[in-house]
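As a representative case, the lines below give one protein's residues and fold tokens.
***
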Amino acid sequence: MNLISRLKDRDIFTQQVSDVQFRTRCPYCGDSQKNINTGHLYLKINPHDDNPIMYYCHKCPASGILKYSDLELLGLEGDELKNRSEERRVGKECRSRW
């Protein structure tokens, strides 16, 4: 199962906002406590290129290139991706805005 499918299949709010952008709850700031059906963390995942997966929270300073530790915080097991095509797209820690 690819990363996009696994992201959507979680019990945590996730919404596709464009062909390459997904919105979910931020594991760093905890997001909205009043409404669990909203999220401020945006993930840029383009299945048609090999660019790194980027993330940016509109509520806290979390941003950068998605790394294995981020996958675990999002409730996605990083070990399952190690032998898949997404492995090279999950990068090392880097803090930059996109």
